[in-house]
Structures are given as structure tokens and as C-alpha cells.
What does this fold into?
Amino acid sequence: MLDTREVNLTLDFCLRVGELLLSSGAGAADVAATMQLVSRHLGLRNADIDVTFTSLSMSHQPTPEDPAILATRLVKQRTIDYEHLTRVDHLVRAVVLDEVDLKEARTELARITSSGHIRPRWAVTLGWGAMCAGVALQLGGDLLVVGLAFVAAVLIDRLQQRLSRQRLPVFYQQVAGGGLATLIALLAALTPLDVNVSLVVTANIVMLLAGIGFMGALQDALSGFYITGTARLTEAILATAGIIGGVSGGLAVADVLSVRIPPLDPGRGDLQSFGMLMVGAAVCAAAFAYSSYAPGRIIAPVAVVAAAAIAISQSIALPGIGRTWSVAMAALFVGLVAFSVAGRMRVPPLIVVVSAVVPMLPGLSIYRGLTLLAEGGPGDTSAGLLAMVTAASVAIALAAGVILGEYVAQPLKREARRVESRLAGPRLVGPLRTRTRSRRRRERH
It folds into this structure.
């Protein structure tokens, strides 16, 4: 039995691991399962863990006669950071395999949280620009629209970074980003160039949209974490409302300055041809992974998976099947292949899953629905409700398809390893490892 000091150190380590995972983009169910795994391996049996959107708590009571030891930790910052997520995932694996002890693990975790990123921040800004360029390509934009989307995304990211340093809430950052995207598009429309203003605005607000938060909320709800799911959904709706305020503010400024505003219909675009749609999806997914500090070795596989997923979605939708089922089948494919791809590239499957479904997220439908509901004109309310129902159905299809793919992929991968070890036969070079390290350790004891 561990003494009180060791229990406190173990609880603190598990909470710090959970905090870093949750703040880097992991779901509540994955965070709770990881904390439970680490605590059991370090000697804390039957520890109680509670994960919410902004806090973590963990308690342990050795016997009914002893008082329970309770520790909590707040999640102060939430940014998608796949570099930290990968490093923490590797650290957890090392702890479970007894490659490091608790003291060494705590030292390595402190090193992860205190060290910066290998990728420079200016490169991340260019990555966001490439992502919006890929979205513009998906929506049918020409070379001019793609270029404007890239430049505007770079400026929006720099503006939001400056506002973030001033500790301005995310809602106001979204307002500023939406307004800047609209003003850039309107300035381009004043030039002699033939530019589609609606496509420029639509491509640029994608990087601001809350589609990823919306799907993450549904994933938490489907996993049984309803409070966390509700909190994420609220954050997603507020972020989208901020974009609406920014776009409408940009249009109001143009009207005050007596600038002739061309027809603006953000949130709508005509999809490209099949081949260009796959290219745009691949660029969008790869750029998102790059901008989220994903390891460089996973960028190309993510692009391939995203292109294959969008191809599956469009191919199934062609015969007349609804978008919801076609997106669900594509998400199921992503969930099935994520474990194999992530295992070979030594990254968490979450990186592959989230990045690959980014081109199919319903963020534009959410934006369009809320915009129509805010206008409240004749027919706008019904159209807005229809857009919101469509967005909700697509998000549920994505979340359900990915989760089902994960449930199916894990046992299939285990069985495939067993079959591979049985059919491997005598090897001419190298040993044949048929037992894991933990199994050999149990046999020695």
C-alpha cells in the first residue's frame, strides 16, 4: 500500500496528465480512461475521477476507515496542440511499460509543459492560410479567390494572436476575425478584379468556425459526459455568434462609408469537381494538422485519409443518398483506418480523426443557420432552422461514425496481430516476439 506522500504525488501526476490532454484537444472520455490507466498502474486501485470542461478532480480512499484524499486541477487554457498531445501519449505509454518511474515521469511532464514548440509560429500562420486556401478550392473558388483567402487568413491569425496576448476573450477575437474577413473581401470587390466576395468571406471564416467544438461536444455526449458536452456546445455557439457579429459589423462599416456592397451570401458555395474537391480536402486537412502542431510524419497520411474520406462521402451521395448517411460512412472509414495509420506513425489516433474530418465539418451550416435566424425575415426562420437541423444531423453522423469506427477497429487490430504472429513462421533474421513485456514480467514474478 502506498503511503500518503506517494498517493499525493500520483494524484498530482495523473491530474497534470489529464489537464494537458484535455487542454490539447482530447475528449473527456479519453482523458478519464488515461488517468484511470495510469493511476491503476502506479498502485492506486479504484480511484474516483471526474472530468468536466474546466476542471479535473481525483480522489482515493485506501480503506473505508481511512479519510479520502482529494485533489483537483483547473483547465485554464484550451488550444488544440497535437505536439504536446503526442508527447504526453508517449510518456503515458512509457509509464505503463515501466520504462520510467514516477519521479522520471513527473520530470518529463514538467519538461513538456515548459518547453516551446519545434515549429515556429510564423509557419503555423502560413498553415492556417493554406487551410483556408484549401477550403476555397473545395468551394469552387478560382485562383484569385484562393489567393485572397490565403492572405486574409494570415492577417486574421496575426490579429487574433495579438488579441490573445491582450487576454481578450475568445468571443471578441471571433468578432474581430469575422469583421476583418469581411472588410478584406469588400476591399477586394472595390478593385477592378472580378472576385466572388461571398466565397472569400466563406473561405476565411472557416478557420474561425466552431464546427470542431460542435462535433467534440457530441462526442462527449455520446460517451456519457453530458455536462462537458453541453459546455462545449455553448462555447461553439458563442464562438459562431461572434463570427456573425463580426461579419455584420464589417457590412455596417461599409454601409456607413457609402461603399457599394456586392451581393454577399457567406456560408454558401458550389463544390468543385470531384478531383479538385479531393485536392482541396487534402490541403485543408493537412494544413489543419500542421497548424495544430501535429508531428511532420503524420501530415501526408492525414491528407491521404481526408481525400479518401471526402471521395467516399461524395461517391455515396451521388446516387441520391442523403448527406447524413454519406458523411457517416466517410466518418466510419476514418475511424477504422485511424488506429492503423496512427500506430504506424506513432501518434494518437485523435490527430488523424480530427484532421481528416475537418473538410466535412458542418461549421458553415451552423453559421448560415444562425445568420438566418438572426435576420428573422420572411422565410429566413424556416431556412435557418433547416440549416441548423442539417448541421446537427451531419455533426451527429460524423461523431457517431468515428466512434463506431474506433469500437470496430480496436478488436480487429488485436485479432490481426494474433493472426500475424501465428502465420509469421520461422524468421531468417531477428527474433519473433510473441509475448509482451508485461506478460514476461508477470511470468517472472
